[in-house]
Amino acid sequence: MKFTVLMSIFKKENPQHFNRSMQSIWDDQTIKPSEIILVQDGPLPDALHQKINNWKGELGDVFKIINLEENVGTGKAKHIGIEKCSNELIAVMDTDDVSLPNRFEKQLAVFANQDIDVCGAW
Fold first, then answer.
1. pLDDT per position in the chain (122 positions), as tens?
2. What is the full DSSP assignment across the chain?
3. Is the whole-model pTM more than 0.70?
4. Which residues have a Cβ under 8 Å from the Cβ of 22 and sit 6 or more positions away?
5. Are 33 and 4 in contact, with CB atoms under 8 Å apart?
6. Cβ–Cβ < 8 Å for 34, 87
7. 67 phi and psi, to 5 degrees?
8. Cα–Cα–Cα angle for 106, 62, 22, nearest 5°?
């Protein structure tokens, strides 16, 4: 089952937190997303661009970046990102969230076996 991870990033995000979040999405997961959408919510500092570029180099076309010229806030940024998602199933994360290794596996199992629209995790 294909799914997208959607995140927005803001200039005040800690680059190490973003990197750890990406590791939890890609390196640690038992099931990997077919697409990761990152909305850059306004201008970002070089340290964040460096981490983003590193992940783009590693993931290639799986990692899609949407640049917003000015900060619009996480809600509007993610709404813009939703419009760019290729998959019906979307896992929304903040760029400082760390997902447990079986998060997507468990959530996909819920969607496969039930008629639901939303599934959260704790």
1. 899 999 999 999 999 999 999 999 999 999 999 999 999 999 999 999 999 999 999 999 999 999 999 999 999 999 999 999 999 999 999 999 999 999 999 999 888 877 888 887 66
2. ---EEEEEE-TTS-HHHHHHHHHHHHTS-SS--SEEEEEEES---HHHHHHHHHHHHHHGGGEEEEEESS---HHHHHHHHHHH-SSS-EEE--TT----TTHHHHHHHHHHHS--S-----
3. yes
4. 36, 51, 55
5. yes
6. yes
7. -100, 125
8. 60
Q: What does the chain come to in residues?
A: 122
Residue recorded with tokens 């949407």: 66
Residue type for position 61: D
